[in-house]
Amino acid sequence: MRIFTRSLALAGGLLVVTAPLASAHVTVTPDTTASGGYAVLKFSVPHGCDGSGTTKVSVQMPESIPTVSATIGYNWTINKVMTPLPKPVDIGHGKTINERVSEVVYTANAPLPDGYRDTFELSVKLPEGKAGDKLVFPVIQTCEVGETSWIETPAPGQDPEALAHPAPTITLTAAEAEGSTASTATSTDSGTRDIAFVGLGLGAIGAALGLFAAVRSRKE
Ligand SMILES: [Cu+2]
């Protein structure tokens, strides 16, 4: 029994140690995936290249996202690589562009040591696409020694978890209904208003009952 419990503890310990490392790859976390929506994409770099510190991170942008606004980072110099477009693209608000941001390159002022993480946020307009469409953001991580290319995408039917260096990827969801954020706001407002009215009403009834009881007891 003692051997059994010890080996169980050992196995448990191993699981705990290895689990976070395996899943801690360069990833992207969008605050929304709604087709055509404005999203903030948070890229995270959780470790270096085989123990070596990160000196540069380059994020390649899909053609369907031609413009991007990058959040300033204290330790990184940001460079947007521009690529000419075959024809002008209307990006709304009466603006037309002739070149797109094909890559966002972060160069470290001081290497990000292995064992430390950092995140990089990009504000973008997601393309008008179908739910299920994939947006792939290949990332090249350059380190003091070596480089890691997070560019792999799964073959049809392949488990993405099985990839050694998966490219950060998001899956589009259906577009949000027009004004959906606004409508939810108003519905909540009217909801609270109703509750407030009910509360007021009950309060008034309570007060009236109290008054009535007081008057009656005085009469008696
Ligand atoms: Cu990893």
Please tell me about this protein's structure.
The protein has 220 residues and is α+β, with helices and mostly antiparallel strands. The longest helix is centred in the last third of the chain and has 40 residues, at 180-219. It has helices at residues 2-23, 180-219, and strands at 27-30, 38-45, 54-60, 69-70, 76-92, 95-112, 118-125, 134-136, 139-143, 147-150, 169-171. A hairpin with a 3-residue loop joins strand 9 (139-143) and strand 10. It folds into two domains: 1-25 and 190-220; 34-170, Uncharacterised protein YcnI-like PF07987, DUF1775 (Immunoglobulin-like), CATH 2.60.40. The strands form three sheets. Strands 5-6-3-9-10 form a five-stranded antiparallel beta sheet, with no helix packed on it. The chain has a four-stranded antiparallel beta sheet with strand order 1-2-7-4, with no helix packed on it. The structure holds copper (II) ion. Copper (II) ion binds next to loops. The site of copper (II) ion has 3 residues, from loops.
Ordered list of secondary-structure elements with their pairings:
Layout: H1 2-23, E1 27-30, E2 38-45, E3 54-60, E4 69-70, E5 76-92, E6 95-112, E7 118-125, E8 134-136, E9 139-143, E10 147-150, E11 169-171, H2 180-219
Antiparallel strand pairs: 1-2, 2-7, 3-6, 3-9, 4-7, 5-6, 8-11, 9-10
Bound molecules: copper (II) ion.
Quickly list its features.
220 residues; alpha+beta; 2 domains; four-stranded antiparallel beta sheet; 2 helices; 11 strands; binds copper (II) ion
Structure summary:
With 220 residues, the protein is α+β, with helices and mostly antiparallel strands. It has helices at residues 2-23, 180-219, and strands spanning 27-30, 38-45, 54-60, 69-70, 76-92, 95-112, 118-125, 134-136, 139-143, 147-150, 169-171. 28% of the residues lie in helices and 36% in strands.
